From TrEMBL:
Reaction(s) the record says it catalyses: (2R,3S)-3-isopropylmalate + NAD(+) = 4-methyl-2-oxopentanoate + CO2 + NADH
Gene that specifies this protein: leuB
Location(s) in or outside the cell: Cytoplasm
Binding-site list for Mg(2+): 212, 236, 240
Enzyme Commission number(s) of this protein: 1.1.1.85
Functional description taken from the UniProt entry: Catalyzes the oxidation of 3-carboxy-2-hydroxy-4-methylpentanoate (3-isopropylmalate) to 3-carboxy-4-methyl-2-oxopentanoate. The product decarboxylates to 4-methyl-2 oxopentanoate.
Site (Important for catalysis): 128, 179
MF (Gene Ontology): 3-isopropylmalate dehydrogenase activity; magnesium ion binding; NAD binding
Quaternary structure, from the entry: Homodimer.
Isopropylmalate dehydrogenase-like domain span: 2-334
GO cellular component: cytoplasm
Lineage: Bacteria, Bacillati, Actinomycetota, Actinomycetes, Pseudonocardiales
Protein name as it appears in the record: 3-isopropylmalate dehydrogenase
Amino acid sequence: MRLAVIPGDGIGPEVVSEAIKVLGEVVPNAETTSYDLGASRWHSTGELLPESVLGELAEHDAILLGAVGDPSVPSGILERGLLLRLRFELDHHVNLRPGRLYPGVQGPLGDPGEIDMIVVREGTEGPYAGNGGLLRKDTEHEIATEVSLNTAFGIRRVVSDAFRRANERPRKHLTLVHKTNVLEYSGSLWSRIVEEVSLEYPEVSVAYSHVDAATIHMVTDPSRFDVIVTDNLFGDIITDLAAAVTGGIGLAASGNLDISGRNPSMFEPVHGSAPDIAGQNVADPTATVLSVSLLLDHLGEKEAARRIEASVAFDLATRDQASPGTTTAIGDRLAALVSSNAAPRPAL
Ligand code: NAD
Ligand code: IPM
Ligand code: MN
């Protein structure tokens, strides 16, 4: 197994090194190559993602990324030039973001019941496509546009992926989240394609929620969600909220998948570089460890993936919620659990 690792900025390197520690316990022969990309490379060379590096990354089985973004770099330079460029170049059209409230985790909602959802966020289109510009620049009447790109091909492939996932889950329920009451053209294309693909999955029940209402439901009744399919920007926003209601951003994992398998998929925590806590050994590495579990699952290493998830579940059920420990202490605990195989299996 050949993995490319991009620790990145802020807490990225801190959480990634714990995740690699855990990985080493389940797949000791995994070969990892670290790529120095992010703020420090940009400062010293002006480079974001050289073509040669992109070519090398593409040769790996998968990529593990910490986070990018740094207050010393103008906002968006690293995010667009590195992270989004990787997602676009490697055709990461399915941005998979599970939101699960693990037993023992005290979220902010009191007693919300079971929360176990998967958000299938479109990853290469929407307003992220960079389709916009400025008119009448530097005048009183300057105009900024940001056109959301929605192709039938792009929608169909994520909607199909979401239905496949829903069909394999016990509840077999899929919710389209959009804003069809305002976004006339993209809204009707998404709705039509969901309707068309639903015919192939007669057992999957389908619901629709406007994105604003979805934020209400995410807080007042999150257990209603099973699989959510949505566009790139709505998916970005609701997955931070899903993370918040399932115990915090420090626990939320994600995978950027090229379902065709032509390019390596990339796994990363949902959170960013958290400059406010960087360098203090206080970031929770659990989201990155769970991202490694998603990575292994994607590469077909189901048993290894399950061992990591079971260890995280065990740790979450038994840790002191108020002070879960330092970044390295949590990493050490998870590595020990994974290696001793001590975590009880049926908990999942
Ligand atoms: P953020 O996710 O970095 O931080 C939001 C809040 O969550 C902060 O209070 C932070 O301390 C906390 N937090 C984040 N991760 C945590 C962890 N593992 N453990 C404990 N607390 C954690 O979001 P932001 O502050 O909006 O963005 C900071 C930078 O990261 C920006 O440059 C942004 O563009 C970038 N960013 C990058 C990614 C990515 O690389 N995938 C994702 C989101 C944001
Ligand atoms: C995320 C982040 C990114 C996004 C940013 C940093 C470009 O917020 O991975 O959720 O908007 O997708
Ligand atoms: Mn985000």
